Amino acid sequence: MTQLYAVRMDVALPPDMDPAARGDLLAREKAYSQEWQRSGHWRHIWRCVGEYANLSVFAVESNEELHSILWGLPLFPHMTMTITPLAGHPSDIALAGPGA
Hints:
Blueprint: E1 3-11, H1 19-39, E2 42-47, E3 53-60, H2 63-71, E4 79-86, H3 93-96
């Protein structure tokens, strides 16, 4: 059964990071995240305005699968994350169906 998670990712790259290493790291991060987006596991990604952070929604089969995806992020060593499991809300008309 698919489980949904909201994941806030805050990034803090070292200010003295070599520009070439930074560019390579960001390119690898983009490719990795887009691969998971195409697979359907990384359903949404939004920028947090004014911050080097995003809020994402993942659809995975288990805690272990989410853990594996997140640990694989090239930026992972430079991130702080907050992970929130999600459940359907009884007032959500999309879940209730037609005529709700």
